[in-house]
Design a protein that fits this description.
By secondary structure, this protein is mainly α. It is built from ten helices and five strands; from the N terminus they run αααααββααββαααβ. The strands form two sheets. A three-stranded mixed β-sheet has the order 3-4-5. Strands 1-2 form a two-stranded antiparallel ribbon. A hairpin with a 2-residue loop joins strand 3 and strand 4. Helix 4 crosses helix 5 and helix 5 packs antiparallel against helix 6. The chain is globular and about 50 Å long. The termini are far apart.
């Protein structure tokens, strides 16, 4: 087979792209423009700029992670994909008061929620948000901090960061997101070393935080107040209102 210059150029570009992963620059620009410091989203403004979000999502869909990618390239890709597709899902149904209002009109628990809507086509696979979070991220990456990076478009969720996650700073970004979440009194309250009211995220995904010790031992790595090992833990009510400015 005769190899043309055009084919060589394509193969080289594909190799470089595969090694580098996906660029999240355009998504990063959208976050800086439409998300404030509290993680609240200007959905009206973002909807007017929806073609740019769709363009980024098209790149994500066309370029699934490859074996040559590093672990951090893959994890940053999936975190950004989850959050960006969540934004797209909200825009598709906007205006909406809560992400929980999205889904089948016939409500079947754990079957017809917003997280079960199959609208994501990455490579040759069709996904919903649950597939990405539980079937890929939680299954393939032993990283509890992802629970403070994945954002479900609700007030009680971790805040949507104003920067995209990038592999070269992923560890730093995940640690910062975790510390910010625990330090936010609207999401977690630390009365003293013997008592705290934590987000239900710590209850729902308790197993993820207890793989190498107790929940309190995990929380103490990032919390503004160090809890005693027998501290009384309660759970905060979860506010599912849309995280809208």
């Amino acid at each position: 087979m005769k190899i043309t210059l055009a084919l060589l150029t394509f193969l080289f570009a594909h190799l470089v792209f595969s090694q580098a992963g996906v660029s999240h620059k355009s998504y990063d620009e959208l976050l800086q423009k439409y998300v404030n410091e509290k993680g609240m989203v200007d959905y009206k403004g973002l909807k007017a700029d929806r073609p740019k979000l769709k363009s980024y999502l098209s790149i994500v869909e066309a370029n699934p992670p490859e074996k040559t990618w590093t672990r951090d390239q893959k994890l940053a890709y999936w975190i950004n994909a989850y959050n960006a597709f969540t934004l797209e899902l909200i825009l598709e149904h906007y205006p909406v008061e809560s992400i929980k209002d999205i889904g089948s009109t016939i409500k079947i628990p754990f079957v017809s929620t917003a997280w079960d809507v199959k609208f994501i086509n990455i490579g040759d696979e069709e996904y919903d948000l649950n597939n990405i979070e539980h079937g890929i991220i939680r299954k393939e990456f032993d990283e509890p901090r992802i629970h403070f990076a994945l954002v479900c478009a609700a007030v009680s969720c971790p805040k949507l960061q104003r920067r995209a996650y990038v592999p070269e700073r992923l560890d730093e970004q995940l640690t910062r997101a975790t510390k910010e979440f625990l330090a936010n009194p609207s999401k977690n309250e630390f009365k003293d070393a013997d008592s705290a009211t934590l987000s239900k995220l710590f209850n729902w995904y308790g197993g993820d935080f207890k793989k190498n010790g107790t929940l309190i031992e995990y929380v103490n790595q990032y919390a503004p107040v160090k809890l005693s090992k027998n501290a009384d833990i309660n759970w905060k009510d979860y506010n599912w209102a849309l995280n809208e400015q």
